[in-house]
Automatic annotation (TrEMBL):
Top-level lineage group: Bacteria
Organism whose genome encodes this protein: Paraburkholderia humisilvae
One of the Pfam families matching this protein, by short name: AlkZ-like
Name of the protein in question: Cytoplasmic protein
């Protein structure tokens, strides 16, 4: 079934940030989008089984090779929410150090330009740090230098402690640069790097002698210097030393981090181990696709690392009910520490790590998110920039919101219900969550 759009669209406001309740007339519900869980129990069971699809030598059962486990979707969902730190109110604390702790735990926080509401990197952090302040991220990037920007599956904030795992990609881009930058000449590249080396960090606004050129792809800049700055960033010559909104200031990477010598590049094995450890930490139960999201070339190495850990008893094969032939794995500790019922309301960014892997989201939550910013208006189901709403561990609604910055209110463009739970108690909980989200939007 497909969700039915709300008959009432556009212009609904949830009020000012100082209100404690939301007027009932400002909220509306779409028809129910029925999602039924494939499992009827909420327990973890262990079974001895052999998966015929596993391409490996079957090892004799020993104390070091734990029995495969079977999880219900509800159990796997709770494990994922715990791993994402969406199961407790302040998992990382409330001060500036919480921002770094959150990024280090998640492994990355995505950056995106869409600003119909607060940009996604701040939104993702706020969902895990209720006392989050934007200056905390500035401090981490530009003062303490404990996070930096680079490309994961998309442009993201990444822990500086993990920088060595990205040096190989930087080196690769020097020899095979992204096709986005085919028009950048060696002279353009040398020019911007020399300018920064001589005059210090700069943004594109500091360069006023560019002669605009035609775009060679839809997202290209017409300024040759901006393209050169972006290429120098990808090949690791420059880093983003400061960000104001989407305006980036670039600096020589070695000068920004005050390196006497650059860190040693991680080996292929070290990088593979890092990606697997990051996924296990932030996802709880992993599949090959979830570890290698948009990085298919890494799959053979990751699979070999998983198989070795299974043989050593460090990972347990997991069957998730309803997952068919998709293989999953978890650590024994993860399976031993089954989370309790998750409580609370989270209005999530479509770029949140919980949402960004759509197939995994659909498997564990029974919810197929649609990112429709580039879909014609008449073909949208949830709206331009719909935000999934998590209530007590289930996705129960999708809200298309827009920030009215002049009036300092959030406008509800469309409200779509997901699932079959009773709406009235959910509506009250979501309204309360919306006020907190609104206050965050317009906090100075």
């Amino acid at each position: 079934m497909q969700p039915v759009r709300s008959p009432r669209r556009g212009g609904s406001s949830i009020g000012t940030p100082h209100c404690n309740t939301v007027a009932a007339s400002t909220l509306h519900a779409a028809a129910v989008f029925c999602v039924k869980s494939a499992c009827s129990t909420d327990t973890l069971t262990l079974r001895l089984s052999l998966n015929p699809n596993r391409r490996q030598t079957i090892m004799p059962r020993t104390s070091a090779t734990p029995a495969p486990a079977t999880l219900t979707q509800a159990s796997a969902r709770r494990i994922w929410l715990r791993a994402q730190r969406l199961d407790t109110p302040e998992p990382f604390g409330a001060d500036a150090s919480a921002t770094v702790a959150a990024i280090e735990h998640l492994g990355y926080v995505q950056i995106d330009t869409i600003n119909v509401i607060e940009r996604c990197h701040h939104h993702i952090l706020w969902n895990r740090i209720p006392a989050y302040r934007r200056e905390h991220l500035y401090q981490a990037q530009s003062v303490d230098k404990t996070v930096f920007e680079y490309w994961t599956h998309a442009l993201s904030y990444v822990p500086t402690r993990d920088l060595k795992y990205y040096l190989a990609d930087m080196k690769l881009h020097q020899t095979t640069p992204k096709t986005w930058f085919n028009s950048v000449t060696p002279a353009d590249l040398r020019k911007v790097i020399a300018r920064i080396r001589k005059n210090g960090a700069l943004s594109i606004r500091d360069i006023d002698d560019d002669i605009p050129v035609e775009k060679d792809h839809p997202w290209a800049s017409r300024k040759p210097s901006k393209r050169a700055l972006q290429l120098a960033f990808f090949i690791g010559k420059l880093t983003v030393s400061e960000r104001s909104g989407m305006l980036k200031t670039y600096e020589l990477i070695e000068r920004h981090f005050d390196w006497e010598r650059p860190p040693k590049r991680a080996t292929e094995k070290e990088t593979t181990d890092y990606l697997l450890a990051r996924a296990l930490r932030s996802q709880g139960v992993v599949s090959l696709d979830s570890v290698c999201h948009l990085n298919a070339k890494r799959k053979p190495l990751v699979r070999a690392a998983i198989d070795m850990r299974v043989k050593k008893g460090l990972l347990v094969p997991v069957t998730i009910e309803g997952a068919g032939k998709i293989e999953h794995w978890a650590t024994p500790q993860t399976l031993d520490e089954m989370p309790e019922q998750v409580e609370g309301v989270h209005i999530l960014s479509p770029f949140d790590p919980l949402i960004i892997q759509r197939k995994r989201l659909n498997l564990l939550f029974g919810y197929e998110h649609r990112f429709e910013a580039y879909v014609p208006k008449e073909k949208r189901l949830y709206g331009y920039f719909a935000l999934p709403v998590l209530v007590d561990g289930e996705i129960v609604a999708a809200l298309d919101l827009k920030a009215d910055r002049e009036r300092r209110t959030l406008q509800i463009q469309q409200w779509s219900w997901i699932g079959t739970r009773k709406r009235q108690p959910l509506k009250a909980a979501i309204e309360n969550g919306l006020h907190g989200f609104e206050q965050f939007q317009f906090a100075s």
